[in-house]
Amino acid sequence: MSNAPIIEMNNMNKWFDDFHVLKNINFKVENGEKIVICGPSGSGKSTLIRCINRLESHQNGKILVDGTELTNNIKNIDRIRADVGMCFQHFNLFPHLSILDNLTLAPIWVRKESKKAASELAMHFLEKVKIADQALKYPGQLSGGQQQRVAIARALCMKPKIMLFDEPTSALDPEMVKEVLDVMVSLAEEGMTMLCVTHEMGFARQVADKVVFMDDGQIVEEAKPDEFFDNPQHERSKEFLSQILH
Amino acid sequence: MVYKFTKNPEKRTLPKAETMAKWMKRNLFSTKTNSVISLFILSGLLKIITPLFNWLFIDAVWVGDSATCRKASGACVAFIKEKFVYIIFGPYPREEIWRPGLTIFLIFALLWWSKEPSRWSKKLIKWWVSCLVVSWILMSGGFGLSLVENSQWGGLPLTIILSFIGIAISYPLGIALALGRRSSMPLIKSFCVIYIELIRGVPMISLLFMSSVMFPLFLPEGVSVDKLLRAQVAIIMFISAYMAEVVRGGLAAIPKGQYEAADALGLNYFQTMKGVILPQALKIVIPPSVNTAIGMLKDTSLVIIIALFDLLSTTKASMKDPEWLGYSVEGYFFAALIYFILCFSMGKYARRLEVEFHRGHKNREVSI
Ligand SMILES: Nc1ncnc2c1ncn2[C@@H]1O[C@H](COP(=O)(O)OP(=O)(O)OP(=O)(O)O)[C@@H](O)[C@H]1O
Ligand SMILES: [Mg+2]
To answer: What are phi and psi of B26, to 5 degrees?
Structure first.
């Protein structure tokens, strides 16, 4: 079991009505692998990772997460969501709850932890993202970078095996990008399985095991970061890289 | 006015003490146009307030009987004094008046206690349920108290009971209807849509009529449902449809990202609603909900058409006393005053809640 890929997609297709967003996706992620997904806007990157925790449903093909197949079965969906944490471009913290309550809500309600245990865990992760002193504030009182770190801590409180990031730094002011990337790097160093949609090339080179390039709903190229950035194989990858590097 | 709020619900920053003259100069007479408008409005106010003041105080009869009143040109406050108990308590037996009095006192006392959001808990709901049970017993009798048919209830207690119970029940019902209307289950969705649109499409009067005239026709013979209860049900049906639309507006204002974050954390539908969506949506709709509630409180006066003696009906009835004919202005004035006090305090309280709930949001400015 431990050698089986933790995420596996076989011939997966997805449509929005009659718009074919994801075309024949075949894709594997090994336990502990860090994957960076990039590609032009509208190529289906977000949709791809959102299929993994069923924020979007696919229409045919197979998605297996940690051995469980994603179907309409609510139990399977719940089991998979318990294993998969997600961070969004716009953080999506709950504005009416304090930082601490943002972190403890799901552990208490979903994992049925005691309030005390959940708070201790929350403080542990807040310390890790270096923001423990803000625990009693509300999301609206924090900077973007701080909010994104809280969002990461909130996902970690559910003790996920896989973390999904959808452009976690692209809504941030430049000076805050680093503090979030630092947290993600240390998470990677601890061996978390990560799928990250980002255009942060430095981050990709530093931590990614593999870069996946998507265009027009297809996976065009998969390669080690150095190979991909220095020597892209496909025309479309070359074009994309020349655009973002200038 | 704009108040600034930071981390804690700080006190409003009131303007520094300044002399009346300075204040007027700055706010009323700062420019030529401003001065003209101010003078115009002030003279208008003077025209209205002076005769009103004369009528209510200078020329009024505060002590005396109907004969003294007839001689005076001002308001006959003596009429209100004479009819006070009837207007407030209606045809309730005089010697038992303490019972509706105590009921009103209990309800207001508990309302006062409930006004701090920090006291809101499951226990408080239990308190309210017990309060309503005690009120019911006080009003209708039993446990050693003599029985009073609810056709004899009237005045303020009736208005308060109809509207408060109406609001308390239709609020959660409205939330359920609003959620149902957004449901992905077609059966639930269409039921809610049809219900809401149907009820909103008819005037409350017709609902009250139907409840009192048509509803009994549907019941098996021999079974009768109390008239007060039927009116109460009609009122609840009516407001809940309006509340549903108010709540729906709040739900629509919550960004999709909140649902997605909740889904990604594994919260189920009810947890998402209870913990994430409703607290935000209901906060947004405090002003329109209170608006609906105020409208509702005033609408209870329509029960007059099915012969229930609410506050307005008792006022009207007391004007018919042959000895005190001709004092309807005073009567309506008094009834309006009571409605105004009730509605104004509701509105004021809602504004306070709004401010309180903004606590914690980033230096947000709230204009009141
Ligand atoms: N809910 C939806 N309904 C219909 N079409 C959608 C929906 N969500 C996304 N799309 C379309 O699917 C395509 C892929 O969207 P997706 O968000 O996955 O792109 P992306 O690669 O993440 O782009 P970006 O870099 O701009 O975030 C786009 O053309 C988009 O317009
Ligand atoms: Mg995207």
So the answer is: -75, -40
Query: What confidence tens digit (pLDDT) does each residue in B9-20 have?
Result: 444 445 566 677
Q: Which residue of B has its CA nearest to A110?
A: B267
| Shortest distance, CA B121 to any CA of chain A (angstroms) | 17
Q: Which segments of chain B are extended strands (E)? A: 2-4, 154, 309-310, 365-367
| B257 vs A contacts (CB less than 8 Å) | 88, 90, 92
For ligand 1, residues with CB inside 6 Å are A 16, 19, 21, 39, 41-47
CA distance B175 to B131: 24
Three-class SS of residue B166? helix
> Whole-model pTM above 0.90?
no
The tens digit of pLDDT for each residue in A104-137 reads 999 999 999 999 999 999 999 999 999 999 999 9
CATH number for the domain whose boundaries are B66-92+148-367: 1.10.3720.10
Nearest Cα neighbor of B9 from B113, B111, B118 is: B118
* Residues 64-83 (A) with a CB less than 8 A from some CB of B: 78, 81-82
Domain ranges of chain B: 4-58, 66-92+148-367
Q: What mean pLDDT is predicted for residues B308-328?
A: 85
How far does the centroid of ligand 1 lie from the alpha carbon of residue B54, in Å? 71
* Structure token pair of residue A3: 């050698």
What SS3 state is found at B354? helix
Listed residue (B188, B162, B161) closest to B177, CA to CA: B188
CA distances from A170 to A101, A207, A238, B260 (A): 26, 18, 22, 18
Q: pLDDT (tens digit, 9 = 90+) per residue, A149-178?
A: 999 999 999 999 999 999 999 999 999 999
**Is residue A88 within 8 Å of residue B257, measured between CB atoms?**
yes
Q: Please name which ligand lies nearest the alpha carbon of A42.
A: 1
Q: Is the ipTM of this complex over 0.90?
A: yes
Which residue reads 């013979």 in tokens? Answer: B221
Taking the CA of residue A39 as reference, the ligand 1 atom at the shortest distance is 21
Interface test with B, best of A92, A111, A159 (most B CBs within 10 A): A92
